[in-house]
Each structure stands twice: as C-alpha cells, then as structure tokens.
Specification:
By secondary structure, the chain is α/β, with parallel strands linked by helices. It has 20 helices and 22 strands.
Length: about 550
C-alpha cells in the first residue's frame, strides 16, 4: 500500500530525513520510533504532503507517486485514502465548533454522505472510540485530553482511509485511557494499514507488529516489534530500551550519552555510539537485511567486546575456575555474582593477565589475547577490591592517576597532568593542590576508591572491571560509588564487568547477571529474568537471602 523510496526532507540547510526507505502492506501495523528530533513527525507529514520542507525521493501510495501530484489531487487523497492523527491536539481541533461538527466536516467536505448520514457516521465513530453521547455537542476545551484524542481518532476514520498515520496517539494519556484506546486501535479493520509514529516504546509494543528505529533521519534497525524490543541489535535501539521504564525493569534507568547533533558525516549515531570505529565517521552504513531483521551498522550491530572460551584455572589440585565461557557486549554492564570463593576474582585476574589460565582462551574485540601488552591495558582496566592495597603509598593522588599515562607514553608532562586532573574532577574529587598532593593514608575509604576509579579511567578504556568496589565502604559511601560508576558508564559508554556477592546491588546496575558457583557459571541472562524467574536453586537462595536482609532491615 505504501512505499517510501530514498526520501530526503530538508529545511534549508538542515536535512531532517536522509534517505529513508520503508514499505507498509495492507493490514500491517508499523511503528516508527526514536527520540524527539529524529524526523518521525516529518516523515508522517511528508506522506500527507503537508511538510514545509523540500521533499526528494518517491512516496508511493497504491503504486502512485504522490510527490508528483498537484495540491488539488492531494486533496482528494487526504482523508479518503490516507488520514493522520496529529500529535498536538490543541492545534487540530477548532475551538469554536462542537466535536460532532468537526467529525462530520471531512465526511461532508468530500461529499461522501448527506448531512444526516454524516451525523450518524460521526456518532457511530465517537461512540466506537468511547466518547459519551452527552459529550458530542461539547467544544474541545470542555473535554479532557483523552476525550480530545478520541475525537481525533474518530475524525481520522471518518472517510474510511486505507492508511492511518498515528502521531503519538497514546503518549499523553493516563494508563487506563492508553489501555482502552490501544485495544480499540488494535481492533480496527484488518484491511487498513497503520503507521504509528512515537517515542513511546509501550505504544509501539501495543500497536505495531513491525518496528523501524529512526535516528538522525536514517532507519538504523527494523524487524518484528517484540524481537527488536527484547533483543535489540543496534546500539541506539538498546539505548532506547534502557531509557524506557516498565514493570519488569530492575536496573536504574539510563539516558543516552551526549545528544543528537546535525549535520553529522558518516553514521548519524557514531558520536554517541559505544563501539564506533574510524569508518563510522566517514561512511553511512547501509541497512543490511537478514531473516526479517535489518541493522544499519558497520560492525553488524552490537559487538561482543570480550569473551572467554572454556577458561580454567588450577591451583595445585584446586580448580578455582572451571571451563568458564562468558561474553561482554560493547556498552554493556554485566554483573558477575557469587559467594566468596566461587572464583569471581580469579576469573577477573585471568582476564587482566595477572594469572595465566590453565586452559581456555580469551578474546578481545574479535582477536585472541595470547599475551597481555600495552595495547590491551590501554583498553581494559580494573578497579581492585581494596583501594588501600591498589594505590601505592609512595605516590600522591596526582601521581597515582598520572602513572598509567606515563607507562603508556601518552602526551607530555603538561598534557598528562591536565588529563589526570580532568579525570579526578570527573570522579567528583576536588582538583585543588592540597588534595592532589595528598597520599593514600590521608584519604577516607571513599576518596581512595574514587582515586582508584580515576586511575583506571584516565586511559579512556573500553572495558572496566570493578571487583567488589564497595565491599570496604559503608552503605552510604558505597551507594555513591555505585551511582558514580553508573553515571560514568552512561557518560563514557564503556563496558563494565561488575563483580559482587550482592545480587541486590547487581540487579540495580546491570543489564545482565551471570551467577558463579564453585568456579562455574551456572546461570546467565537479562537481569530482570534472573531476578524474576531464576532457573537454579543457588540463584533462588541468593535472591531469598537478599529479600530476608531487606525484611530484617525494615524490622
């Protein structure tokens, strides 16, 4: 029914849509999602031929390119073949006409019904969308937001269009109104196609069968709605899902680092991406389609940054780590949870090259790590469990943070000092000479841990391993350190392996949880699934212990 072919829309020098390709069949429901400013509404207005921007490319409705039609021809198509429910209700409804008259207007205007028939049709539509009959003669300002939205939906369907464009149809409504209207929209005639434009992932989930993710005027991911939302493949889609609250969310909500800017050469998302490489800033990636899913990414979608394959460690006759296979994605927080002695720290030290593995392999960014050198340590750093032992007592705060830059021969002395001070400020420590010249024994536990974090971050690593970073701290300081790590991960977009025995803390910070027992990974999955539906008895015991502790604290 609808085919959008290489559509570009620009307002002067500002390109809002940059080569969009989409198709929509009769009876299909497609959602276009993305942040504000990504070009979603412009896409809808372009289909209606109502945008003030310059449109290039083809928009075919029933095989007919409507970009080449005259305004008079388009007037016959609007409301009859395609109708749109606009986002801003107050700009659409006329304040001096009753809502009944406004639903009748497009019916009478297109001479499809007599006045009496138009009134009957309008009443049926208003009733269908749940507006009480005693409200038919009301003016828009006398209705609630939900009632106004029902009027707009009735107007859009007044002439039975084959294509219905819904711009943020549920986002401003309360939960009960969303539920009611969402159900009604799902029940609309299956012969009608629906294009849902929204930033609201709940609306997309309710109203669409297929989804297209729009960013910077480009489609970056497509596929069946539930598959895309449950298992996103593009870094931007994953970031949207992370930022959206729902009843299964256990991790604290995170925003997307940076902000959308225009113009951007290459991939529009690369300035904010957690895995951008050189080509991303130079070339726009094509939308690669495979098995019903499409991803526009030079790296094929979200990459695995670090993985272990059957990694084992034997101390004499004790197998501390037993055939562990684990992976961490770029930009992901993975929590490794287990009791003391389960092998968590030993695994971390093997990853860092502090213990040689007895068996197995380690891969980083697609390459096997045979020996750990400067290149590896410039991209992977570790925060150790005890900050008092991880910082040299012979080095001041400034010297401790500068030391990794000196080892890696990064910049001159002035540049190293500037970078170190910048990182110290980033972990919320004072950059004063008095503080910079202090030694570890002058610092509190929380201050020492922040210095250790700054030391690990000063090289701008891609992966940070945090081994029980709050275990030596009181609850208040520990909470601040965890919040700091979350903020840093969001701001920098780095990957984080968070090692802890506290599953309650793990559920608040992680995207996935891996449970370790007696040197083996016994369970791994999304944090909400591990917390709500554990598959192993040991995981259930960890969760029960955390719940019992909460009950004890309340008492």
């Amino acid at each position: 029914m609808l085919e959008i072919i290489d559509v570009h829309v620009s307002y002067g020098n500002d390109t809002v849509l940059n080569g969009v390709n989409l198709s929509l069949d009769t009876g299909e429901r497609l959602a276009v999602v993305g942040e504000s400013g990504t070009g979603k509404t412009t896409l809808g207005l372009s289909i209606m031929r109502l945008t003030e921007g310059k449109v290039e490319g083809a928009i075919k409705l029933d095989g007919r390119d409507i970009t080449k039609l005259s305004e008079k021809q388009m007037q016959q198509i609007r409301w009859n073949r395609v109708a749109m429910v606009f986002q801003n209700v107050n700009n659409v409804l006329n304040p001096v006409h009753t809502v009944m008259d406004q639903v009748c207007e497009p019916i009478v205007e297109h001479k499809l019904k007599s006045k009496g028939d138009a009134l009957r049709k309008a009443g049926e539509l208003l009733s269908y969308f749940g507006l009480a009959q005693d409200r038919f003669s009301s003016f828009p300002h006398q209705l609630s937001g939900g009632e106004q939205q029902r009027v707009l939906l009735a107007m859009a369907l007044s002439n039975d269009p084959g294509l219905l464009i819904l711009d943020e149809p549920l986002s401003s409504l309360d939960v009960t109104a969303r539920e009611d209207l969402g159900l009604l929209l799902r029940q609309i005639d299956s012969k009608r196609a629906q294009l849902v434009i929204t930033h609201d992932l709940d609306t997309a989930s309710r109203l669409s069968d297929r989804i297209a993710v729009l960013y910077g005027g480009k489609i970056v991911e497509t596929g069946p709605t539930q598959e895309v939302l449950q298992c996103p493949r593009h870094p931007y889609t994953r970031a949207l899902v992370r930022a959206y609250p729902n009843m299964t969310t256990v991790k604290d909500l995170q925003g997307i680092k940076g902000r959308m800017t225009r113009p951007v050469s290459g991939c529009p998302f690369h300035p904010r991406c957690t895995q951008a490489i050189d080509i991303c800033s130079r070339k726009i990636p094509p939308l690669a389609l495979e098995e019903g899913r499409g991803v526009a990414c030079h790296r094929g979608g979200i990459i695995t940054l670090l993985s272990t394959a059957n990694l084992s460690k034997l101390f004499d006759s004790l197998k501390a780590v037993d055939a562990v296979s684990l992976n961490i994605q770029a930009g992901e927080i993975l929590a490794l949870v287990g009791q003391s002695g389960s092998g968590k720290t030993t695994l971390a030290k093997m990853i860092m090259g502090l213990y040689p593995p007895s068996e197995g392999s380690l891969f980083f960014d697609g390459k096997q790590i045979v020996s750990h050198g400067k290149d590896f340590y410039s991209r992977v750093q570790m925060i150790f469990q005890n900050p008092g032992e991880s910082l040299s007592h012979r080095l001041s705060v400034l010297d401790s943070v500068m030391e990794p830059l000196e080892i890696q021969s990064k910049g001159d002395q002035k540049q190293r000092r500037s970078k170190a001070i910048q990182t110290i400020e980033e972990v919320e420590l004072p950059p004063t000479d008095n503080f910079l010249n202090k030694y570890p024994h002058h610092l509190s536990g929380g201050e020492m841990q922040r210095v250790a974090i700054a030391r690990a971050l000063v090289l701008d690593p891609d992966l940070l391993i945090a081994d029980e970073p709050t275990s030596f701290l009181d609850a208040s300081v520990g909470a601040k350190i965890l919040k700091l790590l979350l903020n840093l991960q969001e701001h920098r977009g780095l990957s984080l392996l968070y090692i802890t025995h506290d599953i309650a803390a793990a559920r608040k910070v992680s995207d996935r949880i891996a449970v370790m027992l007696d040197g083996r990974i016994i369970e791994v999955g999304p944090s909400n699934e591990i917390v709500s539906s554990p598959k192993q008895d040991y995981t259930s015991r960890l969760l029960s212990s955390a719940s019992a502790l909460c009950r004890t604290e309340r008492l």
